[in-house]
Structure formats: structure tokens, C-alpha cells
Write a structure and sequence with these properties.
Bound molecules: S-adenosylmethionine
CATH topology of the largest domain: Rossmann fold
Number of helices: 12
Strand order of the largest sheet: 2-3-1-4-8-7-5-6
Helix content: 25-40%
Structural class: alpha/beta
Strand content: 15-25%
Number of strands: 15
Distance between the termini: 82 Å
Length: about 400
């Protein structure tokens, strides 16, 4: 057999460029730069920081990774198309031009979410309905039958965003909001959203080497998010995502990314992350949440009041998320608590850096210490401050 084929000039291998997705990570306001840093660390490109989110470009693996790893984002949308839109007819025709037969079959279910701003069309329910009609009509015309609507748990969640008469149609790759890590099965009175708790820990710059304590930890969201960061555990390791039900879902790729994440998990010495609260029932929930998050015994929870709190180390990061109070009666009661936060930090936490997350700036003044930094963060519609106190 001649070996000439070995010497023959090799045809250059044709590589199919990986499909790139135009994405948008929705983020609580105030945490956009943190989310952008997370996306950059995940290798996403074309980052543009916007109010309430970050636009970026990535391939399929990057999209799966973003959902798995983003701690501060509430969902990741993948843009399908954008068009000018001032009327129901323009909306219907614009939606129909998109390649729905590649995305949904008659046996799948769909739901449409809509947000509107400064546009000729002002009724979000109507815009969602018209979008749904255009999608199901496209499928019925192509396949003879139509997909049905399931608002609770659809196979395909479609997002319509109409701003200044420009309509963006996206697929929601996250499904349930990314806040829902899967570890919180019970709720106490005022739990902090997981994404916001992660943003707070991110803004402190804590890296897992020092102590971190939350002496008013409630259901434990701040210590749990801190421990997930310290152990390099992706916040979404236990949950399902919208993209897992897409027609083009790549199960092998996804399993590989999950295995990689499991293998990369680190350890956290007991006693580094702790939380206390005066409410035993809230602490019970904190214990169960930590256990659900796979952090049983990694976080020390104790029953006690802030007024009697003494840190167990010489330095570290102390984070408190006290109640803000809505009614006047509550506010009178809380005045003493905010004064105590100041006293405890001043008298017992020398060498530490203290952080207070509050939505009530009048109460925050009663802390009586000068904040060295202030970050604005939104807890839903409530504008909050994360105040930093360097406690020399
Ligand atoms: C806004 S909630 C904290 C919520 C918490 N970040 C979470 O995600 O569940 C405030 C917490 O402070 C606790 N608290 C109020 N006064 C306290 C005090 N004097 N000492 C200790 N905890 C207190 C309450 O029991 C409540 O759990």
C-alpha cells in the first residue's frame, strides 16, 4: 500500500464556528457591576453594563455556565430578535417573523412575560397575549396543531420587552428566577433575596479567609450565600433551568459542566462563617436551609441577641440586615436596635469591618458611626444602602 496519502497535502479542517447568543442578565439594581465581574470571570464577552442588568455575548457552554454560576443575577435572557413596534399588528408580524418552528413543537407548552416602558402600547397583558397568538399561529400553520399555554411551568418562557417602541423578544433560559437556589424550602418573616445576599457579600470583598458573622441572620441567607462563595459552590447546583427543556438542549455538555462544578468544590473550616438571631424559629429555618444547601455543620448558628453579641475572632467581616420598619410603632422600637448596632460595633468589634444593609436612612443615622463607604442596592422596589464601617 502506498504511503502517498500520508504525504498528500491535508485539506484544512472546516470548523463550524460556535453559535453565539446575545444575552441579558437581569440583576437587582446596584449589583450590575458585580454581575459584570462575574460574567467576565466566566469568560463571557461584549459586556455592557446597563441599569438593572448586563448585556453579554456567549456560546452555549457560557450560557449554561452563566445560569449555573451567576450569584447576583435573577435571570438570563437570550435575545431572538428586535423590531420597531407601535401597534398590535406590528407586534404580531414582528413575532411571526422569528423562527418558532426551531424552538417549539405543538406538544410543548409556553408562557409569555412582558415588560413595557415609554411605548405606544401600554397594556402588558395585551402585549403578552398578542405575542402568544403570533407564536401559536406560526406553529399551527407549520404543523397543523398548536402548543398550549402553561404559566406555572412552561417548556418555553418567552420574554417581551417593549421600550420606546422597540420590541425585544427573548427566551428566558433560567426558567424560575435564579434567586431560587433550591435550598430555601421555608420562609421566615422578611428573608433577604438570595441574589441580594450574594451581592452584599460580594460588595464586602470577603474572600473566605477571615471570619464572617451575621448577628441578626434570620433564615441564614447571608451566611449561606457566603459559605457557597467560600466553597466555590455554584448557587444553581441543585436546581433545574429553563434551557434544560429547550429543543436544542445539550445534555452531555450540561452534565460535564455540573460534574466540573462538583469536582471544584472546596472546603470551609467550621467557625469561619457564623450567624445568630434571637428568634429560635428563624434559626430552625436557617439550620434546615444550610443543610439543604449541603452546608450542614459548615455554618455555626447560635441563639442570642445582638445586644449580647461578642465576636469570636480579632478581625473579620460583620454584616447585619436589621428590620427597616414600615409602621411608626415599629420604627420607635427599632430606634433602640439601631443604636445598639452602633454600640456593639464600636465597643466590641475593633479590628472588624462592619456592614449594615438597611432601607431606612433615618434609622441608620442612629448607628452613630461614620460610614466609610455607601453602596446603593435595591431590595425589590426599596432603595437600600449597604453602609461600611471600618472599626479601628
Ligand atoms: C430583616 S430580618 C433578617 C433577615 C435575614 N437576612 C434572612 O435572610 O432571613 C431581621 C432579623 O433580625 C432579628 N432580630 C431583631 N432584633 C434582634 C436582636 N435584638 N438581636 C438579634 N436578632 C434580632 C429578627 O429575629 C430577624 O430575624
Amino acid at each position: 500500500m502506498s504511503g502517498s496519502h500520508i504525504l498528500r497535502k491535508q485539506e484544512p479542517k472546516k470548523t463550524v464556528p460556535e453559535r453565539q447568543f446575545d444575552c441579558f442578565a437581569a440583576v437587582p439594581r446596584g449589583a450590575e457591576n458585580l454581575a459584570a465581574a462575574e460574567l467576565a470571570a466566566l469568560g463571557c464577552s461584549g459586556l455592557v453594563v446597563l441599569r438593572g442588568g448586563v448585556a453579554f455575548v456567549t456560546g452555549r457552554a457560557g450560557l449554561y455556565r452563566a445560569n449555573l454560576w451567576l450569584r447576583t443575577a435573577s435571570r438570563v435572557l437570550v435575545k431572538l430578535g428586535e423590531f420597531p413596534c407601535q401597534s398590535p399588528e406590528e407586534l404580531y408580524q414582528g413575532v411571526r417573523r422569528l423562527p418558532w418552528t426551531e424552538l417549539i413543537t405543538p406538544s410543548m407548552t409556553l408562557a409569555v412575560d412582558c415588560s413595557l416602558r415609554d411605548s405606544a402600547m401600554t397594556h402588558s397583558g395585551f402585549v403578552a397575549l398578542k405575542t402568544k397568538d403570533a407564536v401559536v399561529d406560526s406553529i399551527r400553520d407549520a404543523c397543523g396543531s398548536r402548543p398550549s399555554v402553561d404559566t406555572a411551568s412552561p417548556d418555553l418562557r418567552i420574554n417581551v420587552h417593549l421600550s420606546r417602541n422597540i420590541c425585544s423578544i427573548s427566551l428566558d433560559s433560567s426558567g424560575d428566577s435564579l434567586d431560587r437556589r433550591g435550598y430555601r424550602l421555608e420562609r421566615n418573616d422578611a428573608p433577604l433575596r438570595e441574589t441580594l445576599a450574594a451581592a452584599v457579600v460580594g460588595l464586602t470583598g470577603w474572600d473566605g479567609t477571615q471570619s464572617l458573622v451575621d448577628p441578626m441572620c434570620g433564615s441564614g441567607t447571608i451566611p449561606i450565600e457566603a459559605a457557597l462563595i467560600a466553597t466555590r459552590t455554584p448557587p444553581g447546583l441543585q436546581r433545574r433551568f429553563g434551557f434544560e427543556r429547550w429543543r436544542d438542549f445539550d445534555g452531555r455538555l450540561w452534565n460535564g459542566l455540573q460534574q466540573e462544578a462538583h469536582a471544584g468544590r472546596g472546603k470551609l473550616a467550621a467557625g469561619v462563617v457564623t450567624g445568630c438571631d434571637r428568634d429560635g424559629a428563624a434559626l430552625g429555618i436557617a439550620h434546615r436551609n444550610a443543610s439543604n444547601a449541603g452546608l450542614r455543620d459548615r455554618i455555626g448558628f447560635c441563639h442570642g441577641t445582638l445586644e449580647e453579641f461578642k465576636p469570636a475572632a480579632d478581625r473579620g467581616v460583620l454584616i447585619v440586615n436589621p428590620p427597616y420598619g414600615k409602621r411608626l410603632g415599629d420604627i420607635k422600637q427599632l430606634e433602640g436596635l439601631y443604636r445598639s448596632i452602633g454600640d456593639v460595633m464600636k465597643q466590641r468589634c475593633k479590628g472588624w469591618t462592619g456592614y449594615v444593609l438597611t432601607g431606612n436612612l433615618e434609622l441608620a443615622k442612629l448607628i452613630g458611626l461614620k460610614a466609610s463607604r455607601r453602596h446603593v442596592l435595591f431590595n425589590g422596589p426599596i432603595e437600600c444602602r449597604l453602609l461600611q464601617y471600618d472599626l479601628y
